[in-house]
Amino acid sequence: MTVKTVRQLCAAAFLFIAGVTICAGGVTADVMPAATKKPDSGEGTHLWHVQTDSPRQTFQTFLNIARELDQIVTNVGLDRASDDQIAYKQTLILIEQAVSLIDLSTLPEGTRREIGSSTVACLLDIFGRIAPPDVGSIPDIDDDMPIYWRVPDSPIRIVKMSEGYRNDEFLFASSTHRDAPLFYQRISDLPLRSESNIKKWTKELPQITGPLIPMRIVNKIPEPLRRLCLGTPVWKILIVLVALAALAALVIILFRIIRPDHATNPAAVMTRHSLIPLALLLIVLWIEPLISYELNISGLFWVIVSNILMAVTYLAAGRLFWCVTQAVFERIVQSYAIDRENEKNHLILFSGKSLAIFGVAAILTSGAQALGLPVYSIIAGFGIGGIAVALSIRPTLENLIGGVILYLDHPVRVGDYCSFGDKWGTVERIGIRTIKIRGIDRTLITVPNAEFANKELINWAECDMMLITTTFRLRYETDSDQLRYLLVKIREMFHAHPKIDGDTIRIRLSELGPSALGLNVRVYALTRDWNEFFAIREDAFLRIKDIVSASGASFALPSQALHISRDRGTDNERGEVAAKKVKAWRRSGQLPFPGFSSERIAELEGTLDWPPRGSIDSDLIESESAEPLSADASEEEPETPEKQ
Q1: Handedness of CA 70, 75, 77, 78 (dihedral sign)
Q2: 589 burial class (0-12, 13-18, 19+ CB within 10 angstroms)?
Q3: What average pLDDT does the chain have?
Q4: Of 126, 292, 151, whose CA–CA distance to 208 is shortest?
Q5: What pTM did the predictor assign?
Q6: Taking CA 229 as the corner, what is the angle to CA 228 and CA 235, rounded to the nearest 5 degrees?
Q7: How many Cα atoms within 13 Å fall on the side-chain side of residue 484?
Q8: I need a labelling partner for 10 at 20 to 30 A (CA). Which of 232, 251, 329, 502 fits?
Q9: Which CATH number applies to 465-550: 3.30.1330.60, 3.40.50.970, 3.50.30.10, 3.30.70.100?
């Protein structure tokens, strides 16, 4: 059995044990009631319904809960409350119901339970010491209810909620968690009205533990360890610290066991990476009910511990989401069984990373909001600051969008030979932010996606044929018929060439230059390979050179020739004939300047022979091999007088 197999078995065994434990923890956690639960309270006791339709109902509900708690402590005894599971459950339910009477909406979600419990303990001590107000003086439903009501001789207020899911209910004001401890310090010397022997609710309630830790054991703990520190007995703090240290060591050992080896499969690596955050989530879900229910820690210490556990939960959830998302998309890529550098795989992986980033951002944002950071308010109030941030990251966003455009539009693909600007090369990789191109000098060119997408791109891989074009020049001594012979032979050569597309051959006299006759060659080679293209072009140029030599013509050189000859002057006889003709036009009023008359234009139109006299019959201009500038050129052809 290999080491890798042993590690996998250990990881599976751990997750199985953790799953069984968390199931057991879930059963234990179910014992802890919520504020809305109302189980059978047992003989002699009852649990109060929470009524908040008026200040009187809210205040009376709290007093009823206080009397019920005092009765439980009197009948069972606070030192034996945790031994009696029914009494312990009833105590927790009553405290949760009392917490529901306080507006804690302004507090972070992770601290509401403990701050609410501490506030309830302070209110129990306050209302058990000050003189109770006359119930008839408290506004009720039938009265003209005010927006708030203050408890006489105290800063404690009951206010009407104006928003949220508890709209129109009357609750203790959100400032109660600050006002109650301060006011209690001022009246703490007053005696507590109670049928039990409790002196201070704020001191005795934190000592209660769950059924797994009997109070007879707690009572034997030395007094120095029973003192409160950060609102929690010192002995509870020590137990929590030792438990957290042990769990941290367990996580480190687990990481060493199931950490990925030198694996090359990205999906397997991300799957194994996901085991650590999964284990952390299981541990937190297992330990939190034990700490909150069995140990019953309280005060500021519970706020610190709960925030740590919540932060670990959200961080682990974010890491787990990232790993699982990457593993899933890597499996999708592997299912195609294609080269990993294929642009389709790049798009899939890019989509996976985008989804993972947004998912992790949403998880961490929710976690920060739960911890009390006003993330949603900050996001909502970005305003000009958000615009500034958007402008600062504009290049990055442009490159991301450019990458998406390259993936969707496919102007180039991996392996395509292209040119952009003054650069040429083969596409090697299309990334999220940049595209990498191997230049013709074998250098690696990295271009931002936004810049590349905005350039004029020529994708040579998409051409079906490759253009051969050039203009060569002949000496002016070349005779016209000699020139016609040369053009015919060059056209015959290209039509006979097996690697030239016959429908695209165009060999024409293109210019009468200042020192040479220009002949333009434009044909398409039947190839898509650069090496073959250069070979075909070379062969065509050599054949043209042979044809020029065989015709007796010669190429014009870039030089100037000085010809010395006797000037014959002008032909006087032909000049006199031309001058007489112009005088005749002038006398008859037919001088064709600045233009011809419409009658003369109609008389001349179409009288010149085309094709030239002596040419063979040819349908070249009207054949399918013609190259119109528009697909609808035939429909746009103007009508001739004959057609009209």
Answers
A1: negative
A2: exposed
A3: 75
A4: 292
A5: 0.49
A6: 70
A7: 5
A8: 329
A9: 3.30.70.100
